[in-house]
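Inputs:
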Amino acid sequence: MSLRELYLEMLVDHGKHPRNFGTLPHASHQHAGHNPLCGDQLLVYLTLTDGLISDIKFEGSGCAISMASASLMSETVKDKTLDEFNHMFSRFHTLVTTGQTNDEDMGKLSIFSGVAEFPVRVKCATLAWHTLQAALAKDPNPVTTE
Amino acid sequence: MSIKPTLANARQDFPILAQTNRSKPLVYLDSASSAQKPRQVTEAMAAFYLNDYANIHRGIYELSERSTTLFEEARTAVANFIHAAHREEIVFVKNTTEGINLVADTFGRAQFKAGDEVLISAMEHHSNIVPWLQLKEQLGIILKVIPITDAGAIDLLAYQNLLSTRTKLVALSHASNVLGTINPVKEMIALAHAKQIPVLLDGAQAIPHMPVDVQNLDCDFYVFSGHKLYGPTGIGVLYAKKTWLDKMPVYQSGGGMIETVSFTDVTYAKAPHKFEAGTPDIAGAIGLHAAIQYVTAIGMPAIYAHEQTLLAYAEEKMAKIAGLRIIGTAKPKLGVISFVMDDIHPHDVGTVLDCEGIAIRAGHHCAMPLMARFNVPAMLRVSFGLYNTEKEIDVMVAAIEQAVKLFNVEA
């Protein structure tokens, strides 16, 4: 496992130039996520239309892994149903904790497989996903990794 | 039998250092978090368990007497190491955190009332903040904070202005776990004592790196952990002046801390036993004794000088890395360097270094208010122990430069 494998692609493409970065003024759902250990802060906004995540944006600051993860998540979940999101999150969680894809095509998300070798960074990779999940559930409490 | 330990041969005493971390030779630069243990410590503990172990202060048989003697010899060794006037002023606790909690729970509860002030500094570890916040919640005391300069030094003028008739205790780190700053504690204690205010020093960071003389400092309380001093986890020390220990109410209660017990009444043992309820960490005290013998044989002044050399060497090299900013530049400071990088999050740098075999700390260092003071979410920290070398610093500097290259790739 080289560092370049872990970082390079997502950094160059997403960590530095995150997609869907910003706010959604008419979001139907929004939620805050926080990783107190690293100081990562996220706000996720989405619009749910006819059961589909029709639009999603996020803002915040954090390490390269958390920013790239939020960016790639926002691209991946757009126009997906809640069931599809939950399935994707489950696969993503397996990927970053075990490195395994269960033979499913993870697309761009597969670049996170290296995170499994760095257990302390799993929280960075999953913060955006947990935050989006809480947004969809209209959880009254902000997400925290601790 | 044993060869006198020296700085030059120290690495041989720490077998753990001869391993790899992510397939690279381990470079351990996190001694401020916890120090590694020399064989002399682990062998002393093993020998104690194999040959001399029994409960202490209880048995009427020879083995228990021997165990008791070894435990009490450890207390004497601690007293001598920090130049306490009396061995009875040494209370064994589990770590610095428990030492501060003990003072807050006994001295604090007995002496403080609503509106009284405890004065701490802006560079304190959570362990010297939260116990006082507990008393704020429970007794209504007020926590006041001595500001620090941008360089990371105590603002002495502000300190003097904060000392008042309402101040009932100054609780201060001897040296900062983040900034490395060695505070002018002797001067600060004299200023507090001029107003009859007692002073507690959190010595967790200072004790492994410099000679400490509690009588010369004239502090009222001094607390530290064994595990940062190359000793085992689970043992720590509270030094308190005898006059305070005699006045302080009991902490935890049970066996070992009593004189007589009936179902209606109890009389307590004298200090230090009054504060050591239950069977203590006997082997931990034996291990701490061995650690004190180890660092004393090398010499605390020699350890201080060695780490100052490493500090100067590292700071000079790190200053040349583009985008690297050291936080904590006040002198004198210990061999602790906290830093941040422009545009690279501390945890990303930490992972790059981890991949090069280097163990350093990244995060808030249990000092969230200090992170806020410097307006950063987290910092990286390298810290030196007696076993570190300039070559290890070269490896670290090269790895930081590699991180800079990696993260500055343009899309």
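The interface with chain A takes residues 344-348, 351-352, 354-355, 363-364, 371, 376-378, 406-407, 409-411 of chain B (CB under 8 Å). Flag for discussion at group meeting.
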